[in-house]
Amino acid sequence: MIKNTIFSKIISHEIYADILYQDDLVTAFRDILPQAPKHILIIPNQVIPTINDVKPEHENILGRMIISASTIAKQEGISKDGYRLIINCNGHAGQEVYHIHMHLLGGRVLGPLLVR
Ligand code: AMP
């Protein structure tokens, strides 16, 4: 059974988040504990717990997530300098919320991809 998380309440505006963008497929809002000057989460409006649960019919949702990231990066003024998109999956990656979310991080030099 697919469980709702706190992100469902953000999508439905039951709890506050600084929402930058929302359409029929995705919602984007600022991360509550930013790891960089710009840290935005882009999530599907439909609950998909992890990348392992992605199916061919989700292709349009995943495409919209990337297109939204590109648009938001331009709006936030970080597209030229660059930014990073990350999706964590399960325990080894440190996934905390089981509703797919893409981190958009930028606004400074981000350094190596992984801590050694
Ligand atoms: P992950 O570790 O990839 O599952 O990332 C979960 C992210 O969700 C973390 O960066 C949290 O800071 C963020 N987060 C959790 N709750 C909220 C919330 N209510 N509003 C905004 N961001 C949140």
Topology (SSEs and partners):
Blueprint: H1 6-11, E1 19-22, E2 26-30, E3 38-44, H2 59-75, E4 83-86, H3 90-93, E5 102-106
Antiparallel strand pairs: 1-2, 2-3, 3-5, 4-5
Bound molecules: adenosine monophosphate.
Notes on the structure:
- It is built from three helices and five strands.
- The protein has one domain: HIT family, subunit A, CATH 3.30.428.
- Strands 1-2-3-5-4 form a five-stranded antiparallel beta sheet.
- The protein is globular and about 40 Å long.
- The protein is an alpha+beta fold and 116 residues long.
- A hairpin with a 3-residue loop joins strand 1 and strand 2.
- Adenosine monophosphate binds next to loops.
Please sum up the structure shown.
23% of the residues lie in helices and 22% in strands.
Element order, helices and strands? Answer: HEEEHEHE
What strand order characterises the main sheet? 1-2-3-5-4
Strand content: 15-25%
Put simply, the count of helices is 3
The percent range for helix content is 10-25%
CA radius of gyration is: 14 Å
Which spans of ≥5 residues are poorly predicted at pLDDT below 50? none
Mean pLDDT: 97
Bound molecules: adenosine monophosphate
Structurally, how many domains make up the residues?
A: 1
Largest sheet: 5 strands, antiparallel
> What is the CATH domain class?
Alpha Beta
